[in-house]
Every structure is written in C-alpha cells, then in structure tokens.
Amino acid sequence: MNYITFEVGSTSYKLRLNTRGIVALEKQLGCNPLTIFGAKGDTIPTITTMVTVLHASLQQYNHNITLNDAYDIFDAYLESGKATTDFIPVILDIYKVSGIVPKDNEVKND
Questions:
Q1: What's the pLDDT tens digit per position in 98-110?
Q2: Helix (H, G, I), strand (E, B) or coil at 71
Q3: Angstrom distance (rounded) from CA 16 to CA 79
Q4: Which pTM value belongs to this model?
C-alpha cells in the first residue's frame, strides 16, 4: 500500500508524502522531517509541526485541501477523543509509507 488511511469521523483520507511533498515539508519545517522528534527521538513535535505534516501528506491524494482544512481535520481528530500524542504514530506511519524511515519488516544494513 502506498498510503495510510487516516479516518476522522466518517471521512477517510489517504496520507502519503512523495518526493515533492517531502521537499516542500522540509522547506516549511526548516529541517529534515525526522528531526521533529529530536536527536534521540525524545521530543514531541509541536502542534504546528503536526498540522504541517498532516497538510503535506494530504496533498498527493486529497487535492485542494488547504492548510485551514488541515487545521479543521486535526481539530475533528482531537474532538473525536484523540490526544495530540496519538498523532505521533500516524506521523511515523506516514514516514514509513513514504520511505523516510524503514517499514517495520525491513532490515537495516549497517
């Protein structure tokens, strides 16, 4: 599967970052997308960063979704009983299907 399905209420969104999306995300964040978790992976991304990742990952399959739409989608996600920290595994899943980090079943060669 080349995307993850992100369900908010009764709406499903396909999330994925292609190369163009990753480059745009890097420009918006001002850093490599992996660094949002800190050098040791012990940092929780800001809400701004989470919504920015959401917006960027919506672009390939969900055309015409604006940043304001992404804020509304994130609000609906939180209103459904989720916490902001619940979005961290979603980001990691986006990164996996986008090739930013290895999938769980891939073996790293050192």
A1: 999 888 765 555 5
A2: helix
A3: 23
A4: 0.90
